[in-house]
User: Fold this.
Amino acid sequence: MSDKRQAALDRAAQELDPQTLRDAANRLGGPVGRLMGELADAASAPMPGAALADVLAQLDPEMGPEQVLHTSAVEGQLAVVTDRLGRLRSAGASMAQTHAALVRGLTALTEEPGWDPEVEALLNDAMGQANAVDVDGVEVVLADLAGLAADLQAAFEGVNRGETTGFADLQSRAGDLDDALRVAAPDLTAIEDVLSRAAELARQRNNPAALPLVQLSTQFAEELHGADNEDVQLRWRVLLDMGLAAEDKGLAWSAGKKVQAQAVDAQDWKLVAVVAHKVADLFDIGEPQESLARMEEALALVQLPAYREPGLQLVQTVLVNARGSSAEPRVVLMAGQAYEQAGDEAMARRLFSKCLQLNKTEGDPSLVGRAALHLGRLQVDAGLKAQGRDALRLAFNISRGRGDWMLFIGAAPALHAHLVDCGQRDEAAQLRDEALAMGASAGREDMVRQLLS
Assistant:
């Protein structure tokens, strides 16, 4: 390596901030993230010049080291600001919505008669704190965020043109907005603490409106701490027990869904089945909610080898009870999923086909898309290539037309793989372009590219 190039590398290394690059690497991932991580490691190495030379060897040799490294450092800085901007925007919008929902809920509750004096005092305290929120201040911060987002987009475009100057204020402006949001924001955690104490006291003393208060407290805690928070998950279980004991169908249904979601994440299929069974017992046989809850129970049971046969027997019972009801199309879809999970693909295909027939006129596109996706996969596996392709294409088209991302990430790769396997390269290439366009519109082009690789 020439002395001139070594000197250039040493100068470039002095301009790098390894921590900024590592932060960007963690947030970006993919090839760009790996490059930034390698640059950060090289800049921190005992002999940074030689380490940087190794990294630069994989890049465009026509670019000088200062240009490559400075551009990467700028991109790293912009990635960090982008991440912070996203979190700020989410926090500000969530805060405004959470505050509005809290005030509505508290207003309704405080109008209820018969509160215990201590509970009423806590509710009044929570309402007073909620009313003191600087909503206008939050709105000002959100407006400033829009301006910063526009500037950030312009900065990214500048980097793409090779303009790597003029970004020094982005980080500080994002920091200023952090501070402004903290000033404008209420201490939501303090409000949540008061509300939780009021809810627990009302529950212990059997207050007349304890149930809706516990529900409001639980929902507010989830907004603040997230669904994965252990205390929030425990609260939903308590609320489910309260709803079941009070035979409150609506509350038991909604709280049951939360508890089941936790159980599915833990693959606790017995808990999923037990919750579904208890909720179903609140409804009359054949009611839509009863049929759907029983089918959820059956789907959980077929996941457990020892309960697979009873689960399939329950499927058949529910199919009979749901016949002619508004829930029948969804019940049939779930029945197909149960038989597919149990390994009876022939029965599963018949049920998915029946679901499509039930939705043939004015059906639910979401059900049609999912039935078509399952059916298409099974038909392809069974060697029914033309039918499978048509079903997968139907699922893909519905996902694009409705912007149904969950359906899309199943249908797009399945159809693309099938077209490639059948040697239909042109059609596969066209599908790839369509899928990438949808991914780009959702800001997930890289994810789609990986799904289709």
Q: What stands out?
A: Residues 59-70 have pLDDT under 50 and may be disordered. The radius of gyration is 28 Å. The CA atoms of residues 301 and 310 lie 8 Å apart. The chain is about 80% helix and 0% strand.
